């Protein structure tokens, strides 16, 4: 199944016939939505056993061009997929739904059995489906207007919507209820896997002190030097953490090759890391599933009042790919939830600005999202987030979503189930950038901390590269 060949040639031919009929009937919107969508999803692709996952460009693009509603269904939770009807023929007492899987979930006729979907989640999924449906209708009936809106979103700088909406909806308590409904949880305070900003800052200071010992300097001298530089910076007070006052600075540049250059930059790097620790600025790296990770969104963006990230003094912003922030409607929603542009310049600005802001990144991105249903990570060759942490002087914190593959399911990025699954988000020890340390060395220490976190929680991660 899922291979392009004779088994898919017949459905493709029949799809062309329906497309010709649609054209001949005046290209009616309703004809496209009801008979064509139902026939192609249920009777053609559903009976062919073809698993449409959006990860094979040529055959999948043909179906999506002929039936754009299939793209809406694939990107929406609780809508029937072609394989749902194929499963109905394999198990006749399961999968009766034509458009939505709510009834199968509620009546226990899913195979394998799915958790019951709470009514608030049903409403949220239907609202998202309605938004996508309306967008598809607008693109179909008013293509010029939609094209103009898309061009406007592509040309306007993201700083404008970020200034107006940035994180305005991220602390709503409704997100706490949504997390409970989705089954997203965290380790108890003080337990292994819990995140505490004070303890993390103390761990960063310990690592800097050990680095000072290794360089042969006296810890007291290194601490005094860092404190002097931090105090000289204009910035926020860290009175709530019981440490010295200082700026969010983080202006220490990554050391260049050569012992003399590294030695000259060591005091600035130490001061930047000390400032970031005192003000609790961190770079959180979430795994697995790349940009499809549910735990990342509900922990660092729509975090409400009870997410571990909610206790950070200046909050946290979740990095999102630039293309996601260029889609009308999606841009406003994601930015209001607390997402921000994933460009290096923007993230560095947040980490080194006057407000003590942390950032969260899904380093695997799209490439890791393709390995759905597994703990395969795309990170070994990705040094960008380590360079960012080195430049900002902010510690890297590994984060794992235990159960994330069960949330997304198997197949491909288009086959996301997004139904309630138990998901536990655990945090590892911070990895502080050390004075004179190249980003590659910081990246190697981060991978070691990530592996240790996975081993402690029984997560079978493996590298996909």
TrEMBL record:
InterPro entries: DAGAT. Residues 253-264 have a biased composition (Low complexity). One of its GO terms (cellular component) is endoplasmic reticulum membrane. Residues 243-252 have a biased composition (Gly residues). It is a multi-pass membrane protein. Pfam families: DAGAT (PF03982). One of its GO terms (biological process) is triglyceride biosynthetic process. Residues 238-264 are annotated as: Disordered. Its EC number is 2.3.1.-. The keyword Transferase applies. It is found in: Endoplasmic reticulum membrane. One of its GO terms (molecular function) is diacylglycerol O-acyltransferase activity. Keywords: Acyltransferase, Endoplasmic reticulum, Lipid biosynthesis, Lipid metabolism, Membrane, Transferase, Transmembrane, Transmembrane helix. Belongs to the diacylglycerol acyltransferase family. This is Acyltransferase. The lineage of its organism: Eukaryota, Viridiplantae, Chlorophyta, core chlorophytes, Chlorophyceae.
């Amino acid at each position: 199944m899922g291979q392009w060949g004779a088994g898919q040639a017949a459905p493709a031919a029949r799809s062309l016939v329906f497309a010709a009929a649609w054209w001949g009937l005046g290209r009616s919107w309703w004809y496209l939505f009801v008979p064509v969508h139902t026939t192609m999803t249920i009777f053609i692709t559903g009976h062919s056993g073809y698993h449409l996952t959006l990860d094979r460009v040529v055959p999948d693009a043909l179906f999506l061009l002929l039936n754009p509603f299939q793209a809406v269904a694939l990107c929406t939770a609780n809508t029937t997929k072609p394989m749902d009807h194929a499963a109905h023929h394999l198990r006749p007492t399961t999968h009766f739904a034509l458009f939505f899987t709510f009834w199968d979930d509620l009546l226990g006729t899913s195979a394998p059995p799915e958790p019951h979907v709470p009514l608030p989640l049903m409403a949220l999924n239907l609202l998202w489906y309605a938004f996508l449906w309306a967008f598809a209708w607008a693109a179909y009936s008013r293509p010029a207007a939609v094209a103009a809106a898309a061009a406007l979103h592509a040309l306007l700088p993201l700083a404008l919507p970020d200034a107006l909406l940035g994180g305005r909806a991220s602390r709503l308590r409704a997100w706490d209820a949504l997390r409970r409904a989705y089954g997203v949880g965290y380790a108890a305070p003080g337990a292994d896997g819990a995140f505490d900003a004070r303890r993390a800052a103390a761990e960063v200071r310990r690592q800097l002190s050990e680095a000072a010992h290794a360089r042969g300097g006296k810890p007291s001298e290194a601490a005094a030097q860092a404190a002097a530089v931090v105090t000289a910076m204009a910035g926020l007070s860290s009175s709530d953490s019981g440490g010295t006052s200082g700026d969010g600075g983080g202006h220490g540049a990554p050391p260049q090759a050569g012992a003399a250059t590294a030695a000259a930059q060591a005091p600035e790097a130490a001061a930047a890391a000390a400032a970031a620790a005192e003000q609790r600025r961190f770079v959180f790296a979430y795994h697995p599933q790349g940009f499809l990770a549910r735990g990342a969104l509900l922990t660092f963006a729509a975090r409400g009042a009870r997410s571990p990230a909610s206790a950070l003094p200046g909050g946290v912003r979740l990095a999102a790919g630039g293309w996601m922030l260029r889609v009308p409607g999606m841009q406003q929603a994601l930015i209001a939830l607390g997402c921000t542009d994933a460009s290096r310049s923007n993230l560095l600005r947040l980490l080194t600005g006057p407000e003590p802001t942390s950032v969260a990144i899904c380093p695997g991105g799209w490439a890791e999202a393709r390995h759905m249903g597994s703990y395969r990570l795309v990170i070994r060759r990705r040094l960008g987030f380590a360079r960012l942490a080195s430049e900002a002087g902010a510690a890297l914190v590994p984060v794992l979503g235990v159960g994330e593959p069960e949330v997304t399911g198997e197949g491909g990025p288009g086959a996301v189930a997004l139904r309630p699954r138990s998901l536990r988000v655990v945090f590892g020890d911070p990895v502080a950038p050390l004075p004179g340390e190249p980003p590659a060395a910081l990246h190697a220490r981060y991978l070691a901390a990530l592996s240790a976190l996975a081993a402690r929680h029984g997560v079978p991660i493996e590298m996909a590269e």
